[in-house]
Amino acid sequence: MKKRALIVTVGTGTRSDVQIFKPLKKAIEEYHTDFVWLAASSGSRSNAEIIVRELALATEDYAIALLSDIDDFQAVFQDINAVFQDLFSRGFAPDEIEIDFTSGTKAMSSGAVLAAIHNQCRSINYITGQRKDGVVIDGTEQFRKIRPAMVFAAYDLKRARDFILKLRFDTAEQLLHGLTLVDTRDQALAQQLRHIAEGYRLWDLFNHKGALAKLKHLDGTLKETAAFRPTPAAAKALEELAQGKTAPKDLLLIDLFNNAERRCHEGRYDDAVARLYRTTELLAQYVLERDFKIVSGDVDPIKIKVPDTMREGLERLRDKRDNKIKIGLDWDYRLLEGLGHDLGVSYTANESLQGQLRQRNQSILAHGLEPMTANMYRNLKASILSLIATSIPDFATRAAALQFPWLGDHKAGGDA
Length: 416
Fold this sequence. Notes:
With 416 residues, the protein is an alpha/beta fold. Helices cover 52% and strands 8% of the residues. It is built from 17 helices and 8 strands. The chain has helices at residues 21-31, 45-55, 73-89, 106-118, 148-165, 169-176, 184-204, 208-215, 232-241, 249-265, 269-292, 308-315, 329-338, 342-349, 351-360, 374-389, 395-402, and strands at 5-9, 35-40, 62-66, 97-100, 123-128, 131-132, 135-136, 142-146. Strands 3-2-1-4-5-8 form a 6-stranded mixed beta sheet, sandwiched between helices. Strand 1, helix 1 (21-31) and strand 2 (35-40) form a beta-alpha-beta unit. It is elongated.
């Protein structure tokens, strides 16, 4: 069972015929608290003591804090913040603490509210009701409250959007989970941001079908989400990618390259380089299948026109478990060269690219311990784009068009 603590600011009252402790006593009774901190001044301490007597509070159930300067809201903030720290030390959690700022100077009220928001307490309370001559009439009291969580929720919407822009989709989803929102437009925005964060996270994980299911719900009327709407070309590409194994391999190649760009954007160069390595391999696989109907996972040397020495080398790669010949990056390009394809010839002649790929093999994500750098990524990217251009002339333009929309103008690897 949760405990409840209440912090109450206690003023002196503005009129001699008004007993300020009466509404405060009702407030404490209304909130059913287990512990009360009365924040008073030297002039209002007597009111705090009257409240203690009227409620017959036990010594262990209350404390009185004397504020150092009731006309300095920064000083009040610091004093009330110290009260919160005391309550935390007594075992109260932030969501077990309420604060009532009905009584006191303007500085006391503003300092108390600031401390309440800073410590994210359960609620900030105020007593109102029917008034006569500016004073709430006894018996008409109404207890108003606002939860600081609602204030932070509106702020968290903006933070979540910023995290999405930085590709931190998991963090955005965590922020958006369980937000307490009252405004219907904020609720709609939060729902849209959830779809966006989850959709692009799934896309980043190559779960194109899941990404499509989320991103197709995007509302075009909210200006805050306009930057996240895929272009018509990207939306169409995502639908094709969602086909899975039957998706066009040139789109898979573009998607993999764009994924590498995003890892570079995050400064994750080992991941980015690993994806470029796979892009290089997938390029050869794509061209072998496109131009020669050869699948790298099941090569039949008898059906292809290559030198006999190459057939012998391919036979040595036959897997005894399933009797299939499966080739990797080097053999993909050797086979293309043996078939007289420009891509294989270009790869073999590009010693710089081969050296960069060997350098990748020394990465901690491959076979070595050397961390990859932004410069390594940029150099490998430039070499791969040059190689791709021999077989897919419009690759760079298409890749830019299909990148996550808010990254369209980002030259990945250029500013890292």
